[in-house]
Write a structure and sequence with these properties.
rod-shaped; 238 residues; mainly alpha; 78% helix
Length: 238
Amino acid sequence: MAISESSRAKLSWLLLESFLVVASILLAFWIDAWWDQRKDRIKEYEILIGLEAEFVDVKTRLEYWASRNARGIGGIGKFLSGVDPETDRRAVEYAFESASIANILDRGGAVDALIFSGRLEQIGDRDLRTLLIKWPDWIDDIASNDLSARRFAMDQIQPYLARHGFPGVDCPEGRLVCAEPGPVPTAYLALAADPEFRALLMLRRNWLRGAVRDHNNAANQAEEILSLIRKRLETIAD
């Protein structure tokens, strides 16, 4: 039986309407998926910006303490090499300061918050996620060593120095060394000849060497993480 022109036209419209309905449904799904992906990218971008700021700060502090402790090693070494009445008092007190002050690294909280909240999975770079997962353990080891060094300095070095008149000047907050140039006090000369104190300084110097190594390694790790963060930010922005 032949199909009339009218029936053929109705069938064509029916097929067209069906196609349009299917197309509109697919378009709606695509728009919904695109919107969800866009929201995920915005969330990831915000996370990465926060991480970038934290790791820039941590890396700066790690490099500062690595540099400061390296100078402290040199100051202690000069003291151990020999002190006489003509030695600049400031150089001796710098060695004392380096031996008696130990930093405690503030680990920050952004990475821990991401891990505990489960939001770390919102970062699309697998290599970056892997390094971030390892970061807290790395920093915990450094903080533990720093804490042990501080206890050693407070329990062993500082009381020894206090008994010999250091610090002898009331310095501004954050500083132990602010004496004017001048000859080395007799009490300091006695310390330079004291075998027990010299042994304590040698131990402290070895601890500082380990701290310099740890802080430099962690700073390099932070730089690697920053590099991946910035690459990921560029990818998201494209």
